[in-house]
Amino acid sequence: AVDVESVNGEKAFFDQVGSTAAVKKTSRHADTPLVETPHTRRMVTMSDYEWADLIDEQDKVRLLIDPTSTYGRAAAAAMGRAMDDEIIAAALGTAKTGKDGGTDTALPAGQKIAHGSAGLTIAKLVSAKELLDAASVDPSIPRHIIVSPKQISDLLNNTTVTSSDFNTVKALAQGEINSFVGFNFIVSNRLTTDSNSDRQVIAFAQDGLKVGMGKEPMAKIDERADKSYATQVYYCQTLGATRMEEEKVVEIACNE
Fold first, then answer.
1. CA 82, 83, 89, 92 torsion: positive or negative?
2. What's the pTM value of the predicted model, to 2 decimals?
3. What's the pLDDT tens digit per position in 49-76?
4. Distances (CA, A) of 154 to 169, 173, 250
5. For labelling, which of 153, 161, 164, 219 has a CA lying 20 to 30 Å from the CA of 82?
6. How far apart are CA 102 and CA 92, in angstroms?
C-alpha cells in the first residue's frame, strides 16, 4: 500500500518536488518565464532484520512431516511485521528533511484528528478525506487507512440498522468489500497508541509514504554441521521508510 524503491547504501535520499503555478503569456515574443520549483529531499536510514531457527532431525520424525515450509512461512510473516512497524513509525514519526537529512519534520497538528472521546466514526473518516482533498491530493492516487479490529467494531456500533452506511460497514467487516469513504481498509494489530492511550489510526495517499528496500527478504534453508546437522531456516532483509509529504498523511486518534 506504499511506494517502494530499491536503494543501495546505509542511507538513501528521495526527492520532494513542490507544486508551482503556470505564468500567463501576455504578449508576443515575451521572455521565457523562470519558475522556481520548490525542491528538497527526504532521508531514509536502512535497518537490518534477521530471523533464524533450528529444526532438529528428531523434530521432523516426531511431527511426521517436514516442518521447514511452516517455519519458512513464520519467518516470512515476521519479516512482514517488521516492515509494517517501519512504515507505521515513519508515517507518524519525525521525518529527516534536507540535503543531508539534518532537518527534523514532524507531522503537523493540522494533520491530526482529535479523539473527541470517541472511537472511529464516519465523521472522522469524512474529516480525513476532507484534509486530503483540501491539500489537492490527486484523487486518482489510491488512499488507504490502517485500523485495528476495534475501529471496525466502532463503525458497526455507530451506524444504525436503518442507515445505508450500516450495510456498507457490515460488508466491510465481513470482508466482502475493503473500501469505504474512498479509503481502502487495512486491518492491523501493529498500530501504536499516543500519550493518551488513544489508538493512532493512519489515513494516507499511497505516494505519501515510501519504503526503501536495501535488500529484499532473502531466505536460506540449509544444514548446520556445528549443530548436529540440524536444519536452519534463515531470513534477512534491509529496509527503511519515510513520510514523503505531510499533507498526504492523516493521524486519527481513536478512543478505545
1. negative
2. 0.86
3. 999 988 887 776 666 566 667 888 888 8
4. 10, 11, 19
5. 153
6. 18
